[in-house]
Write a structure and sequence with these properties.
The protein has about 110 residues and is mainly alpha-helical. It is built from 5 helices and 2 strands. It has helices at about 5-15, 25-30, 45-55, 60-75, 80-90, and strands at about 20, 35-40.
Length: about 110
């Protein structure tokens, strides 16, 4: 039951929307507040989480949404991704001895 990086969760968070997500590892990396998580594959857990979140004060859900948007901005913006990729290309490259597969052309 692996999803990889959940793009729909990232997109929702980027729009400052409170996100409910199952407790799979990929979601746990993004959703830091346990109050917004439910047990994977358990509809009763989803229902309880939804009920709990709907009963929260607006400040709590807005705060969660703002934290999510900030986390997306600081970790997944195109500027951050470009800097990270650029850093990889700037790392020293270990040179490997050439191995000739074909004989040299005379």
């Amino acid at each position: 039951d692996q999803e990889g990086l959940p793009i729909t969760v990232l997109e929702s968070m980027s729009y400052e929307i409170p996100v409910l997500a199952s407790d799979i590892p990929e979601h746990r990396e993004l959703i830091m507040d346990e109050a917004f998580m439910f047990r994977h594959g358990n509809i009763n857990s989803l229902a309880q989480t939804l009920k709990r979140v709907l009963g929260m004060k607006k400040e709590q859900t807005v705060g969660h949404a703002k934290k999510g948007k900030e986390m997306i901005r600081s970790n997944f913006s195109w500027d951050k991704i470009a800097k990270d990729i650029s850093a990889i290309y700037r790392e020293p490259v270990v040179q490997v001895h050439e191995t000739r597969i074909l004989p040299a052309v005379k």
